[in-house]
Amino acid sequence: MKNRLTILLIALSLFGCQAETEQTEASASEPTSAVQPDLLNISIVLDLSDRVVQPMQPSQSERDIQVVNKITEIFKNNMKAKGAFKAKDKIRVLFTPAPKDPNINSIASSLSVDLTKLDNKGKKEVYDNITTTFKEGLEEIYAQAIRTKNWPGSDIWRFFKYDAKELCIDPNPQYRNVLVIVTDGYLYHSQSKDRQENKTAFITANFFQKEGFRDNSNWKEKFEKENYGLIASEQSYENLDVLVLEINPSPAHRNDEDIIRAYLGKWFDEMKVGNKVLYHTDLPSNTEKRIESFFRSN
What we know:
By secondary structure, the chain is of the alpha/beta class. It has 9 helices and 9 strands. It has a single domain (40-296), classed as Rossmann fold (3-Layer(aba) Sandwich).
């Protein structure tokens, strides 16, 4: 009887080991797509055009810089939550196209951090100084642009056509790729005037007036029926979340915001953007809450 009990216990032990092994193997064979991203890869595109001198309080440049301050704060919190060893996040400020002014371009090129390339000492320096570094750098860039009235502008349409995939998306599934666009919503650059029937590379206040969208209660029907929109890039952006901030329509035509949202929303859908959120300019405290909400979502 004793021998039978011993044999039974050995059999149960072997079965348990086999079940545990099978469970471990099954877990290891799960597809990498199941990995939830916990690292941030953040790109910030700033529209450095005459929008920054529009009369408002706080000024548009102050609002833009406060947006970046909030994002660097989120970046730091993500570093702190992981600790130096696991912190591999990335953040950069982009101007598109790159400013021709060598001083602005030099400062802009310094507003980029890739923690994968730093040791623990370098990461601590980033953690201690990133908010100040980005804030002071942007203050100098905006001050110089305003002083010289040299507006590089922002070719956001061409950025999506050629650059966004390469610059803003890390294919590693551990990363959440985020693109923050700070613009008034009107898209225009002298190098991008393309038009294909009712699809364009630009949307401007004059264009809305000329095409009959303003003072037209049926503008949405016209937009959909006549297939208006922005020319979509052939690139696909499923792995990119886009946050658009500081949309600021003409004070005399507040409904321009609805038209801008229709254009941008359709454009992002056609390029298969993973997640898109658009906000108009507001009190900085409200904008900060919206930024927090966006980064909490996943």
